[in-house]
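Morning!

As promised:
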Amino acid sequence: MSQSAPHSAPQCHDFQRGAKKALDDERLQTLLDRTLENGFQKKRLQGMSRLPEYDQLRDKARDLKDHVLDHLDMYLARFEAEVTRAGGQVHWARDAAEARDIILDICIKADAKTVSKGKSMIAEEIALNDHLQANGIAPIETDLGEYIIQLRNEPPSHIIAPAFHISKEQVAETFMDSHPHLDPDRDLSQPTELLSEARGELREKFLRADVGITGANILIAETGTAMIVTNEGNGDLTQSLPPVHIALTSIEKVVPTLDDATLILRLLARTATGQEQSVYNTFFTGAKRPGDLDGPEDFHVVLLDNGRSELLGSEFRDILRCIRCGACINHCPVYGVTSGHAYGWVYPGPMGSVLTPHFVGIEEAHLLPGASTFCGRCEEVCPVRIPLPQLLRNWRVRAFQKGLPGGVRRLSLNAWVHLARRPRLYRLVMGFGVAVLNKLARGKGAFRRLSGAGGWTRARDLPAPQGGTFQARYRRGER
Amino acid sequence: MSARKEIFACLKATLDRVHNPTVRYSGAAQRILDAGPVLIPERGRAEGPAKTSLFVSEAENADADVRRLADLDQVPGVVHDILRDAEIDTLKVAPHKTLQAMDWRSVDVAFGRGEGADHAGLAMAYAGVAETGTLVMASGPASPTTLNFLPDVHMVVIREEDIAANYEEVWARFRCEADPALPRTVNWITGPSRTADIEQTLLLGAHGPRKLIILLIDAEAS
């Protein structure tokens, strides 16, 4: 995939085509299996087994986030006051365009040519890189996965493993093309060699960047502190080396105290990757202090709303508890075969299917709430117990009210409603259907092929109904 | 209306519908002062020697190399051997008075912040957290944060009495020792830098140190 402007133009309406493409891609299916079922899922179980209080902590975290949402304006005001007291500045952005302009303005004032970036999903949400580039500023992604997909001009396929869908051979090709100043005969067959090349390339860029932009996983009202979670150490260099640091995040990330942040951090890494703790949890408060040997002279926090304040009063409020661990994505049987690009926008999987319709509109994204089997695993693994299937159902209701989906699907659905509300007619039609199918199966009990059911019978037999409808058999006493 | 005003107005309109604003305001203020009982996992409540061994085993689980030393005087000798084995000639040391007071005649040292070309760095931890074998580094004139990330080999001295059972104890120490409570940067460090971004293969030393060596100074002697 190499669409050039993946963010500005959502492709959610094309979910089915994207899903089909993914299903036909054997290499991707292998990587999905390795990353999810044999990767994140197993690691999470191992991580959980080492912390008996895990479920209790989840309840606490849910309650904490609910408390925060009830007092969101209070904690944001306190956070802002503390950031200011520590010599930093908070900027408020109603929408993506406003956030982009605030950041561009800070970069221009800093006379910035290059910007080093830590991984940030909010930066993806506002399509920041395109905007900086269009204005003559070069953004450099420093997270290894983000760096790889930036070189390939692709959107991330997962919120915490953005490049899992790319094989090491593809990474090697990309590095060969993108680093022409290096020896063309060098060996890039192993992941260690790829890492060491990326480390070398990026080290220089870290040191020369004029502005560093990171996200923030959590904001702490008590002290005006923002914090990031990384394993590589890239975000941490991004926030300490350049003379200007911008932390870009959204308003629902605030918590009251350092202890509250700790509660979330006991869950985040364990749920995401099964680690006891991510390697680096970096807390930053204000600008460089007198006597400090490093750190930015200027510190900015850009807080994005982008409709979250509206979600707060809606039936989707619970999604604002999300801490972006990726567990719902890792455990979703639909994501598990379609991967992230099929979803057509920034956030994939169950949490994405709740968020995306809000950001891009239900007309564009009405297929996403349908991209769920409602198996409930997402809710089961969520560290803050977001009722994801219910939220997806809420979107289906909204979509239906807007006449989506239309066409044949709408007609079939209406036909079904008509039938299901009329028991006599229902029994008649079902009885007839069962009899016909029975006849067609000629007593073999299953179809190898059936017109109109090719999607099923291509891979397996379709069982034929036997012995009448369920209701008929129930009445006959076959229980 | 400014963005700030509009966002706050929207939040307030939604939230005040459900709860009385005065109650909400005092609730939030009170919550910051006193959150009530915190759930600290059993593993975060170790004491005495068990606490130290938990710190060591958890740090080792996270691929840190832990050396237990009887006293601070042993640090330069151990560091000398580590540098010799890693074939590194020079050492960047955080300008912390404890580290500055050491006898560095056998090692080529410079004091200061981390630089791109530093191969090895030595710093002093503010605290440790036994629960997960985590080091807590507090930035300041004696402890540049860049030194925690730029060198390939990162060595950190921690005194046994600075090991806390859990993270909350460390926050409490920050709150009672300084105002504002936190320095510009606090780093929790659990093991050396890593990535699994290429086909989920775990590799150490992504952008930060490839090696994290913890020099733990026994309490009795220090």
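The longest helix of chain A spans residues 26-49.

Hope this helps with the figure draft.
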